[in-house]
């Protein structure tokens, strides 16, 4: 079942921050990693990477590639780690609140 576009927008930044927290990644690698969780394309990820870099959550560096031009890698900064922790805390609280509401509304399916 496809995920609602608004749901994806709301959690995409968190998924990208957590992915780069695990290891430095280049753009296409990050698209592949995020796509394991939600369906995204390069046109969605690259503007987000640019914004996160401009906001100092990521820093970039180039690595030579045997398959073409150098790749731009993204590394999370201490500010990015802080942002990731905040978003994760907010996500967990939101998720718990929504799930509790759904559990309390289980009779909805029976109508």
Present the secondary structure layout.
Layout: H1 5-22, E1 25-26, H2 27-35, H3 42-54, E2 58-65, E3 68-76, H4 78-104
Helix pairs in contact: 1-4, 2-3
Number of strands: 3
CATH C-level class: Mainly Alpha
Rg (CA only): 17 Å
Average predicted confidence as pLDDT = 91
Number of domains: 1
One letter per element, helices H and strands E, the order comes to: HEHHEEH
| Main structural class | alpha+beta
CATH fold field value? Arc Repressor Mutant, subunit A
Q: How many DSSP H or I helices?
A: 4
Which runs of at least 5 residues are low in confidence (pLDDT < 50)?
Answer: none
**CATH-wise, what's the superfamily?**
Winged helix-like DNA-binding domain superfamily/Winged helix DNA-binding domain
Coarse shape: elongated
Organism: Longicatena caecimuris
Protein name: PadR family transcriptional regulator PadR
Describe this structure in words.
The chain is of the alpha+beta class and 111 residues long. The chain has a single domain (5-105), classed as Winged helix-like DNA-binding domain superfamily/Winged helix DNA-binding domain (Arc Repressor Mutant, subunit A, Orthogonal Bundle). Helix content is 60%, strand content 17%. The chain contains four helices and three strands. It has helices spanning 5-22, 27-35, 42-54, 78-104; strands spanning 25-26, 58-65, 68-76. Strands 1-3-2 form a three-stranded antiparallel beta sheet. A hairpin with a 2-residue loop joins strand 2 (58-65) and strand 3 (68-76). Helix 1 packs across helix 4 (78-104) and helix 2 (27-35) packs across helix 3. The longest helix has 27 residues, at 78-104. The radius of gyration is 17 Å and the shape is elongated. 14% of the residues are buried. The model has no long low-confidence stretch (mean pLDDT 91). Residues 17-83 form the Transcription regulator PadR N-terminal domain. This is PadR family transcriptional regulator PadR.
